[in-house]
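Issue: ligand-bound run for zinc ion - logging full I/O for the record.

Environment: standard queue, default settings, no custom constraints.

Inputs:
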Amino acid sequence: MKLTVFRYGTTEITERMAIEGGDESIKLPISLLFFLIETKEKKILVDAGCDAMPGFELFEFQKPVEVLETYGIDRGEITDVIITHAHNDHMDAIRYYPQANIHLHKNDLKSGERYLSDGTKLILLDDCGTITHGVEFRHVGGHTAGSGIVLIKLCDKALALCGDECYTRKNLILKIPTGSSCCPEKSRAFVEEYSKDCYLPILFHDPDLIEHLGYKTLMEL
Ligand SMILES: [Zn+2]
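Outputs:
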C-alpha cells in the first residue's frame, strides 16, 4: 500500500475558523491537499479538491486533476474517491472521475448533490465502512453532518486522514476543536480521541505536510 499527498494551492483562513475561540483578525496560511491510496487492486483518492474556491484568494494554484497527472497516472485509472465531507474544496473536482465509485456519507448527500451527475457511481456511507482491506471510513459528524475520516491500519497504529475535523496541530495538542463545526460536541470528542498515541493524524490543510506544489509519498508498505 502506498499513500501520497498532493498539494494544489494555498490560501488563508481566520484563526477563528481554525480554532474554537480564535481571533477573527488573525490569518493562518493553509494548504489545499488531497490524497491517493494505492493498493494492488485500487487507486483511491481521498477527496478530489476544487477548481475554484469562491470567497478565498488562492496562491500557487494548479487544478488538482492536473497535479495528479504530474504524478504519472491518468485520471481514468482512479477506481474510487472517498469524500470526507461535501464542501467545495473537497468535492468540486469529482466530475473528472466519472468511472470511479464516489463514497459519500449519507448525511452529506443533500449538500453534496450539486456535485453529482446522473451517471455518478455513488456509494452512500453509513457510520463505519471498509473501503478496501486496511482502509476504513469512520463517520464523525463534527465539521459537517456527514463528515468523516479515513483510517489506514498499520501494525500497532492507524493513520487518520482527518478531513476538516481538525485544521491545525494545535487543535490536537491543546485538545481544542475547530471553530468551523456544525456540532461542537462531536468536534470536541474528535480531538479527544484522535490526539491519542495510537493514531497518526494527517490534516487536510496542513501547510507543513508538503512544502511545494506537487506530490510527496508519505508511506509505502
Ligand atoms: Zn477544507
